[in-house]
Amino acid sequence: MTAPTVGAAPAETVDDLVARRVAGQSLEAPFYTSPEVYQRDLDVIFARNWIFVAAAAEVPEPGDYVTIDVGAYSVIVVRDDDEEVRAFHNVCRHRGSRLLQERQGAVGNIVCPYHRWTYGVDGKLMFAESQPPTFDKSCFSLRSVHVRNLSGLVFVCLAQEAPDDFDAVAEVVAPHLAPYELDRAKVAVSYDLQEAGNWKLVMENNRECYHCDGHPELTTAYFPLFAYEPEDITPRLKPLYDRYVKAAGALAEVRAAHGLPLTDHRELDTRVVGYQLSHLPLDGEGKSFAPDGAAVCTKLLGSVQDAAFGDLSLHMQPNSWFHLLSDHAVVFSVLPTSTGTSVLRTTWLVHPDAVEGVDYTLDALTAVWRATNDQDRALVAGTQAGCANPGYLPGPYSMVEDDVEAFVNWYVTRLREASA
Ligand code: FES
Ligand code: FE
């Protein structure tokens, strides 16, 4: 038996770290390097909150499914025969085998590979061989997972009781998403980027454009100014800012002509379903993410009629962001895969009738965000390595990193609430 160590300091707990978090500066190293914090993140953030997992366009027909791994959980998102998007735990009700192994596919029914229990895409058990007469199939449906299809964006919540303010947020956001008709869009392409960083570093990096000088492709169209107040504009940024003000005026006129307001909403850390919605002008031609803001697809999404429709930017806590443009949308989800790794899934959506090679090319459609994702990946990997260095100390956020602070504040608040 090992003797207790006399005089040793008590082990620091996750609660200690959370309690002493200092507002306005980056988190202490264990938030990015500790397996205990990672497990807390899975339990408190990913298993209790609404997380974005897929575009509804990834499951366009009944029987189409995707599977999503979140920590030890695996979830099936499937379109049922009534064309509703459903979500189930990817676990057989017999002896627990994983049901669907592939990331994506199409099924008539969901058949367990072990003893062939067979479920409908509505989750109901339809067939189980060699059961006694007393066996009641209705007691062994797949366990459902809370799911919302927000205008074509699919969110799930793994908790028994989901946070109840999702619907209130959806009510605000849905009218802004409506013109793009993402529910009937087509997936042009989707890919997973393995990030060498804790999931929070990927999110924090997304929440600021302080580093956007490192994104030459993105900033030919995107104004890296969304967090700036006029008084923050330095002489170096003034010409860019003047162009931004002019482009914002033009975008306001376009939206007014369509009877659509230019209203923004920001509740990133003031509610459980934290979100921010902004209508941002684009530089150059003002149409899309391409050199000089040119269009990348000839067919416009949904009921959008003007190519210079700006960028509807939506940020949702804890794991997603979205850019909706006149001619395509790009949707992003971040999921943790270990303490120091995560996966960023990026999906490009276009008009359902847009034809590759005719209306768009994958190279032109994806060039900006593939380059930007790669650049961000290097920044995140460098920060993960830095945070793991014993020489790391938390540093202060600049005046244009408010949304990083809001993300971290949202995160720490959830951890504090869970501990309380
Ligand atoms: Fe699925 Fe036996 S574990 S049928
Ligand atoms: Fe970036």
UniProtKB/TrEMBL annotation:
GO terms for molecular function: 2 iron, 2 sulfur cluster binding; iron ion binding; monooxygenase activity; oxidoreductase activity, acting on paired donors, with incorporation or reduction of molecular oxygen. SUPFAM superfamilies: Bet v1-like, ISP domain. Residues 50-156 form the Rieske domain. Keywords: 2Fe-2S, Iron, Iron-sulfur, Metal-binding, NAD, Oxidoreductase. Pfam families: Rieske, Ring_hydroxyl_A. Its cofactor is Fe cation. InterPro entries: ARHD_Rieske_2Fe_2S, Rieske_2Fe-2S, Rieske_2Fe-2S_sf, Ring_hydroxy_dOase_asu_C_dom, Rng_hydr_dOase-A. This is Rieske 2Fe-2S family protein.
